[in-house]
Specification:
3 helices; mainly beta; 203 residues; globular; single chain; ten-stranded antiparallel β-barrel
């Protein structure tokens, strides 16, 4: 089983069948999709220095826009330790910039969390909690977060965390995956929000 099947256990079967297929992710068989973000909103302009640092590590970015084309590629691979890791590669094609949002995910089956390292190289770490709704959608919420430095990881105070909520579903009428992501800080407000849709493609 892949990491998401292991994590969710019996709840995995409650996901919409297309989401089950999307998150099956056999080793070295990428899920690749193209789509459009109907809306992307970044945070306040005074956060530009933070975004400038984040873009260098393929993390957050300062651009906002509507109907922005994007691609997503998820690849499950085996690490030398034998542990499975899923690489997330998201690319957003603004009219004058191409931006990236990368992450690497493994699981802690005992604590039942996804361990998410954000950026390439990683800039932040976050626990992620996965749940399945009655309608078969996948909801992801962040937990403990840390700032990642070359030799150490430092806890981020609660009031400085970027609290993440992700909801992914499948629209049977339009035959598309749907996605809504919100990253919010209790002091600063919105750090990033994007919402859109995508369809799987052959690579």
């Amino acid at each position: 089983m892949t990491i998401y099947q292991t994590l969710l256990g019996e709840d995995f079967s409650r996901l919409h069948p297309m989401l089950q297929k999307r998150y099956a992710l056999p080793v070295e068989q990428p899920f690749y999709a193209i789509g459009v973000m109907h809306k992307i909103e970044s945070g306040a302009k005074w956060l530009r220095p933070f975004y400038a640092m984040a873009t260098k590590t393929r993390f957050l970015f300062p651009e906002s826009g509507e109907d922005v084309p994007f691609t997503i590629c998820n690849t499950c691979r085996a690490l030398p330790s034998g542990e499975l890791e899923v690489l997330w590669e998201r690319t957003f094609y603004f009219s004058n910039k191409t931006r990236h949002f990368d992450a690497r995910m493994t699981i802690d089956p005992v604590q039942k969390i996804v361990k998410d390292y954000l950026g390439s190289p990683a800039l932040f770490y976050s626990d992620l909690h996965f749940a399945v709704t009655r309608e078969g959608r996948l909801v992801i919420r962040s937990g403990v977060q840390r700032f990642v430095m070359p030799q150490i990881e430092c806890s981020i105070p609660k009031m400085l965390e970027g609290r993440v909520v992700v909801e992914e579903g499948f629209d049977e009428i339009r035959n598309v995956f749907t996605i809504h992501v919100s990253i919010h800080n209790p002091l600063i407000g919105r750090l990033m929000m994007y919402a859109g849709e995508f369809t799987q493609q052959s690579m």
